[in-house]
Write a structure and sequence with these properties.
With about 200 residues, this protein is an alpha/beta fold. It folds into two domains: about 55 residues; about 120 residues, Rossmann fold, CATH 3.40.50. Helix content is about 55%, strand content about 10%. It is built from six helices and four strands; from the N terminus they run ααβαβαβαβα. Strands 2-1-3-4 form a four-stranded parallel β-sheet, with helices on both faces. Helix 5 links the parallel strand 3 and strand 4.
Length: about 200
């Protein structure tokens, strides 16, 4: 590659870098503005009660913007500094082996998504914690001191959690609730693993 080609390549790389930085700035601004407008949006949703403009849809949009902001940055975190924070309702309700305070009690039967999530934990060497609510989640974060968090929960709990840990990057994943809230919920395990790989810098 001659000097002219090197110069062209350098200019091209500079433009790409500047473009990415500008995009990140736009994403951060969009997230900040939406966050500031949340109280007003919730008030409007309560007053007008449109199906397409509800508290749930607002929460989902906030989570999308939060995750978009997280993905606009680069990470290279050690696996032991990643916390996978899970709701207790992912465990099958009929299971007699309670794992809320010790996930190692899981018998790995494969009847719920906990089985696959533990496999991800063992594959990458993550921290994993099952919680029953916000208070326990906050305690887990204080005790384990993660650098980043992959959190699974319903929209309402995720919004509350994101507000509690603003200084720690949190990628929020909404759980599936085929049988209703807080009962035999499920999660996209493939998405969880992709986010873990992203935080690891893979």
């Amino acid at each position: 590659m001659n000097s002219q080609e090197k110069k062209i390549q350098k200019n091209r790389n500079t433009k790409i870098f500047s473009g990415k930085r500008a995009l990140r700035w736009i994403v951060e601004l969009e997230f900040l503005l939406f966050k500031l407008m949340l109280p007003l949006l919730f008030l409007l949703a309560r007053c007008f009660k449109f199906r397409t403009f509800s508290k749930t849809s607002i929460r989902k949009r906030y989570i999308v913007l939060n995750n978009k902001l997280i993905m606009s940055r680069k990470y290279n975190v050690k696996s032991e500094c990643i916390l996978l924070l899970l709701p207790h309702c992912l465990q099958k309700s009929l299971c007699v082996h309670r794992i809320t305070y010790d996930i190692n009690n899981c018998k790995m039967c494969g009847e719920c998504d906990i089985f696959e999530l533990i496999r991800i934990k063992e594959k990458y060497g993550l921290q994993i914690y099952l919680v029953t609510g916000g208070t326990i989640a906050r305690k887990a974060i204080i005790d384990l001191k993660p650098e980043v968090i992959v959190a699974v929960a319903c929209e309402r709990d995720l919004i509350s959690g994101l507000g509690d840990v603003e200084k720690i990057p949190v990628y929020a994943i909404i759980n599936d609730r085929p049988k209703g809230p807080c009962f035999d919920t499920k999660v996209d395990v493939k998405e969880v693993e992709k986010v873990v790989q992203f935080f690891l810098g893979e």
